[in-house]
Amino acid sequence: MTATHCPYCALQCGITLENSGAQLVLSGRDFETNGGALCRKGFSATKLLEHPQRLQTPLLRQSDGSFAPITWDRALDLIAEKALSIRSESGADAVAMFGSGSLTNEKAYQLGKFARLALGTSRIDYNGRFCMSSAAAGTNKAFGLDRGMPFPLADLDDAAMILMLGSNVADTMPPFVRHLDTVRERGGLIVVDPRRSATAKLSAEGAGWHLQPTPATDLQLLLGLAHVVLAESLADSDYLAARTTGLDALRASVAAWWPERTAAITGVPAEEIRRTARALAHAAREAKNGGHPVYILTGRGIEQHANGTDTVSAAINLALLLGLPGTMAGGYGTITGQGNGQGGREHGQKCDQLPGYRKIADPEHRAHVAKVWGVDPEIIPGPGIPAVQLLNTLGTATGARMLMIHGANPVVSAPDANQIFAALRRLDFLVVADFFLSETAAEADLVLPVLQWAEEEGTMTNLEGRILRRRAAIAPPGQAKSELWIFSELAQRLQAPGTFSPDAAEVFAELKLASAGGISDYSGVNWEQLDQGAKIYWPCPEGSTISTDPAARNGTPRLFLDRFAHQDGKAQLIAVYAPVASPSKKISLVTGRLLEHYQSGTQTRRVDELAATSPDVRLEIHPSTALAHQISDGQLVEVSNQRGTTIARAKLSTDMRLDTVFLPFHFPRTSTANLLTDPSVDPFSAMPEFKHAQVSLNPIKGEN
Ligand SMILES: Nc1nc2c(c(=O)[nH]1)N[C@H]1C(S)=C(S)[C@@H](COP(=O)(O)OP(=O)(O)OC[C@H]3O[C@@H](n4cnc5c(=O)[nH]c(N)nc54)[C@H](O)[C@@H]3O)O[C@H]1N2
Ligand SMILES: Nc1nc2c(c(=O)[nH]1)N[C@H]1C(S)=C(S)[C@@H](COP(=O)(O)OP(=O)(O)OC[C@H]3O[C@@H](n4cnc5c(=O)[nH]c(N)nc54)[C@H](O)[C@@H]3O)O[C@H]1N2
Ligand code: SF4
Ligand SMILES: [Mo]
Fold first, then answer.
1. Measured by CB atoms within 10 angstroms of the end CB, which terminus of the chain is less buried, N or C?
2. Domain 2-48 CATH assignment equals 1.20.1250.20
3. 71 CB-near residues (< 8 Å, 6+ apart)
4. Ligand 2 atom having least distance to the Cα of 452
5. Where in the chain are the domains?
6. How far is the CA of 173 from the centre of ligand 3 (A)?
């Protein structure tokens, strides 16, 4: 019996694996985030392990375009040879690395170290850029620290009110919904989504309510809510004076956003805006008088925009005006997405980052990490460039010529996918490590077969900043190898300075040292206590007392209770601005997820029961909008704009607004939603505009 966690999302539901030799049986485990429940993806996760399409040997592209199996020695020699020759011709930045929020902490840490020391490149970034970067930029600005939920998930169980913006947990993390039972009973769940999503239904069909704004107008809506709180003197002025800075600028920034103007832009009626602001302020006051706590939570719906960071700032401002963050009366949190989306953004996969959430441009930070790595700080490269820029410049005069991808499928999941496809084709050499031949792996020169969740040891950090153990229950198939082993072998061939252990426990021991004294400090965590079920949340400095009692929360379960992480200990209100103009009248496309599929779909499209329920891409469209475009239910539709065309079957739904259609991004080739998305990025986080594009709709005649 192995106690481990689901391979997919950041809820990291507890799973038990029983390996009878003949069969591997998976069941839900009574773990705090899921209480024994799993969603359909989690339940069917063993299908990934036994899948017939599992990669079993390294594959090398032949001159006729086909792949042929080769030995590991040959594969590793070839990577080293290519990296060295390209580096000597074009400099170290000509070789780039792309990581992932799916990787364990140990792999993420080693990938960052490998890029800086073995490849000597600054060109490293990762798919978390497409996921948590705006949330991270916003929380860093406000609090000086980025941990998605600065409190345990179980704190939500007692909430009086939760304002949930752009998150659809009922589909994306179904067991999360149990933490909303009480707030729903109390009539306090307020969901903000242009779609009547499964989560919006939880509020609209209970005693809570659903605000259904025009897509990409959340910033205006939040400014409008803050306006009401200030104009009606509902803010917590004692808290603001004691714990925040920046109130005057904030006051000026929301002055123009009276409810009627906000309503004209967002489409949310003025009385709904007033009602929401008053209800939140009332609940927050009650919470501080011994009542139940109040939370503001955000998801990708408000973050994946070219103004995502400002929108996160506006959400945090509202929470601060209500006096919530850093108190037991509630707080602000962002719901991390990928399995290790939290840990993945702490250990140095970001282009400007070193382990422990340190800054690569800070001389003291460089010196600390260089010491742990046993190298001169001078040899650690400086900051690189973020994901969209890294990918789009590949094969150009300023871009890398060789790329290694570990744990991402950007041909499907990056914005303006046609450009990404072209960029990968411009490379001299593309290496993709995966367990399946993803659409991106299919473009590679060399494919490396790697280990999956139930075949490897390591740690993951879930959406609450809690550190968990991933445990091996079975042996890997064929020649599939651990990525730690791959980095260790390649480091030798590249004569890298420093050590690259293939053993996860050893890498974790080093990660602890590298993180010590940093923001995300893991130095007091040890595997034995994690194995015994200790609840440990970072920061957990060396010497922390750890109890394995299930009632004990170790490390820092609740952040900011004494002070925020900025030098003055205060939270910063950030004045943000939005255009006071109505959005254009074209059809808006929003994108997101389905319950059955995970991300680019590489994994879940291969699981029969998931693929059978949701076999192909569907365009969700309001029946009246469909009528206006002469589109009938089930008909194939060309969804187009200047960047490309996606072909999808219409699915009529009154859950949609009249001016908005929805596409999930889980499907490949002509079904790829990202053929339409805009590669413009947020100025602070470099997050692309995934969630909103303008499109036109054309039914394909004769097709039904
Ligand atoms: N089934 C499934 N679960 C997953 C994943 C998956 O791929 N499939 N992926 C995991 C990952 S990596 C992540 S990041 C999380 C994401 O989890 P969520 O953030 O819950 O997922 P999304 O569906 O991307 O977006 C949430 C909602 O945002 C809404 N939205 C779109 N545009 C706007 C807007 O302008 N304003 C507002 N207010 N809302 C808008 C969409 O209608 C959608 O209902 O899910 C995780 N869980
Ligand atoms: N239009 C639109 N686009 C989006 C989004 C959206 O809402 N709308 N959401 C964005 C978000 S939030 C995210 S997180 C990204 C995700 O998009 P991707 O980065 O493409 O993520 P995955 O589909 O999870 O791809 C991971 C790949 O890595 C493999 N893999 C998993 N674990 C490992 C491992 O440990 N090692 C290796 N080597 N491989 C592994 C899987 O088999 C899969 O092929 O998509 C983004 N793209
Ligand atoms: S909610 Fe997330 S972690 Fe839980 S079973 Fe589903 S995919 Fe796995
Ligand atoms: Mo994500």
1. N
2. no
3. 57, 58
4. 35
5. 2-48, 59-130+340-555, 133-335, 587-699
6. 6
pLDDT value of residue 704: 53
CATH of 587-699, one of 2.40.40.20, 1.10.1520.10, 2.60.40.1220, 3.30.565.60: 2.40.40.20
Q: Ligand 2 centroid vs 453 CA: distance in angstroms? A: 15
Per residue in 96-115, pLDDT (tens digit) is 999 999 999 999 999 999 99
> Which residue ranges of the chain lie beneath pLDDT 70?
581-585, 703-704
Backbone angles phi, psi at 352, to 5 degrees: -115, 25
What confidence score (pLDDT) does residue 583 get? 46
Return all residues near 242 (Cβ < 8 A) that are at least 6 apart.
Answer: none
User: Among 51, 127, 338, 598, which is best to mutate for testing ligand 2, by the most ligand atoms less than 8 A from CB?
Assistant: 127
How far apart are the two ends of the chain, measured CA to CA in Å? 50
Q: Where are the alpha helices (DSSP H) in 542-629?
A: 608-613, 623-628
| Nearest alpha carbon, ligand 2 atom 19 | 408
Residue closest by Cα to atom 21 of ligand 2: 408
Q: Within its chain, how far is the Cα of 699 from the centroid?
A: 34
**What pLDDT is stored for residue 584 in this prediction?**
53
For ligand 1, atom 29: residue with the closest CA: 301
Topology, domain 59-130+340-555: Rossmann fold (3.40.50)
Give domain 133-335's CATH superfamily: Dimethylsulfoxide Reductase, domain 2 (3.40.228.10)
